[in-house]
């Protein structure tokens, strides 16, 4: 039987040689339930077995097509179903995007991530973003795109243009997916992830916490990510950014320890993945971010804007990384100790 490279691992005999361990939701819940410091300690040990804990991967985000999205994701300020203050923008011009990518590179980013508020690209959109990807890749940056659901052949076209990563999140526990998004299904996300894998692109796949979910639902999200086979190379853990006008604008605050637990459980269950401390950092005290790095986060969005909302600026992040003796990925080799991010 031939297996899809991104098949969801199952406990049954249908997949005799899974690449890694199958995570039952109850086992992931048991990790969440560990005493807090035991969990962080265990995650830190796993992190140190697989990574240099001083290295942080830096990705800069740019929204290349903003707002007016036909999907109704309850968290998203870019959905046309919600009434937010966001101004819609057409696809940016390639020169403008390259200028932003050059600035990100000069400031120390290693990867440039481009996001578009589409349900999925049309064939002419794929042609347009392919030209953009080629131009960014030519600068020597890693490239990542997040353009929504892909049709047959699109992932291959993006790969050919020089795309390294495709970001497509599972976002929440599969069991509550349709409470958060009504215009597509969890299975649609899995279908696009399969296309991305088969085209040979690296997978960036994570989710959002702080959407009034239970701890058990956070465990369900992490289990669904950890059971992707192979596991995603990059796992963004986003804390909901509450935007006025979205259905989740008044969601309850998530206690900071629950966020750190989520990072730690992601690290333990996906030991070889980069775990990104993603959206929500603008509201996180430095000490909380430090705790996330201890618990195994080793990637951040670097630059003062996410897609449409605020992120800490580069100067602040450079200072924080200095205080914690952290270095951009690739700068911690012999002879580069103490290397700083150029601002
Ligand atoms: N439209 C494409 C899609 O949904 O895959 C790509 C862009 S979409 C904005 C990328 C990701 O941003 C979503 O999957 C979600 O995880 C994250 N996101 C959107 N709004 C957010 C918010 N308010 N807080 C945290 N993360 C958010
Ligand atoms: C991801 O997981 N988080 C990023 C990126 N992938 C595309 C997006 C965060 C968006 C936060 C809300 C906004 O700025 O619009
Ligand atoms: Fe559209 Fe993506 Fe926002 Fe959903 S998360 S509304 S698909 S831009």
From TrEMBL:
Pathway(s) annotated for this protein in UniProt: Cofactor biosynthesis; biotin biosynthesis; biotin from 7,8-diaminononanoate: step 2/2
UniProt GO MF annotations: 2 iron, 2 sulfur cluster binding; 4 iron, 4 sulfur cluster binding; biotin synthase activity; iron ion binding
Cofactor (UniProt): [4Fe-4S] cluster; [2Fe-2S] cluster
Top EC category: transferase
Cofactor annotation comment: Binds 1 [4Fe-4S] cluster. The cluster is coordinated with 3 cysteines and an exchangeable S-adenosyl-L-methionine.
InterPro entries: Aldolase_TIM (IPR013785), BATS_dom (IPR010722), Biotin_synth/BioAB (IPR002684), Biotin_synthase (IPR024177), Elp3/MiaA/NifB-like_rSAM (IPR006638), rSAM (IPR007197), rSAM_sf (IPR058240)
Gene3D superfamilies per UniProt: Aldolase class I (3.20.20.70)
Binding annotation for [4Fe-4S] cluster: 69, 73, 76
Keyword set includes Lipid biosynthesis: no
UniProt EC number: 2.8.1.6
Keywords: 2Fe-2S, 4Fe-4S, Biotin biosynthesis, Iron, Iron-sulfur, Metal-binding, S-adenosyl-L-methionine, Transferase
CDD domains: Radical_SAM (cd01335)
Superkingdom, natural source: Bacteria
Annotated ranges, domain Radical SAM core: 54-281
GO biological process assignments: biotin biosynthetic process
Binding residues for [2Fe-2S] cluster: 113, 144, 204, 276
Catalytic activity: (4R,5S)-dethiobiotin + (sulfur carrier)-SH + 2 reduced [2Fe-2S]-[ferredoxin] + 2 S-adenosyl-L-methionine = (sulfur carrier)-H + biotin + 2 5'-deoxyadenosine + 2 L-methionine + 2 oxidized [2Fe-2S]-[ferredoxin]
The protein's role, per its UniProt record: Catalyzes the conversion of dethiobiotin (DTB) to biotin by the insertion of a sulfur atom into dethiobiotin via a radical-based mechanism.
Family as reported in the entry's similarity comment: Belongs to the radical SAM superfamily. Biotin synthase family.
Complex formation: Homodimer.
PANTHER family: BIOTIN SYNTHASE, BIOTIN SYNTHASE, MITOCHONDRIAL
Name the UniProt record assigns to this protein: Biotin synthase
Organism of this sequence: Neisseria animalis
């Amino acid at each position: 039987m031939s297996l899809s490279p991104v098949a969801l691992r199952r406990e049954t005999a249908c997949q005799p040689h899974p690449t890694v361990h199958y995570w039952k939701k109850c086992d992931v819940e048991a990790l969440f339930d560990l005493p807090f410091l035991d969990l962080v300690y265990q995650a830190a040990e796993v992190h140190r077995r697989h990574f240099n804990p001083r290295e942080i991967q830096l990705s800069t985000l740019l929204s290349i097509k903003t707002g007016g999205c036909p999907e109704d994701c309850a968290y998203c300020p870019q959905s046309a179903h919600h009434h937010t203050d966001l101004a819609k923008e057409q696809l940016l011009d390639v020169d403008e995007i390259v200028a932003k990518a050059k600035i990100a590179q000069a400031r120390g980013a290693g990867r440039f991530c481009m996001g578009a508020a589409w349900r999925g690209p049309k064939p002419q959109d794929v042609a347009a973003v392919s030209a953009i990807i080629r131009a960014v890749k030519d600068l020597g940056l890693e490239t990542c795109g997040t353009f929504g659901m892909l049709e047959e052949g699109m992932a291959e076209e993006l790969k050919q243009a020089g795309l390294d990563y495709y970001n497509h999140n599972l976002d929440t526990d599969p069991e509550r997916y349709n409470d958060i998004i009504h215009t597509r299904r969890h299975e649609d996300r899995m279908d696009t992830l399969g296309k991305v894998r088969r085209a040979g692109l690296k997978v960036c796949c994570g989710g959002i916490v702080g959407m009034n979910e239970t701890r058990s639902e956070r465990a369900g999200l992490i289990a669904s990510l950890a059971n992707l086979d192979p596991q995603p190379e990059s796992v963004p853990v986003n804390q909901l950014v509450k935007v006025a006008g979205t259905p989740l604008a008044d969601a309850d605050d998530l206690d900071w320890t629950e966020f750190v637990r989520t990072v730690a459980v992601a690290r333990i269950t996906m030991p070889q993945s980069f775990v990104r401390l993603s959206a929500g950092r603008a509201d996180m005290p430095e000490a909380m971010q430090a705790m996330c790095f201890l618990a195994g986060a080793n990637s951040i969005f670097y630059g003062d804007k996410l897609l449409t909302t605020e992120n800490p600026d580069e100067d602040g992040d450079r200072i924080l990384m200095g205080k914690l003796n952290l270095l951009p990925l690739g700068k911690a080799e012999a002879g580069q100790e103490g290397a700083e991010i150029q601002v």
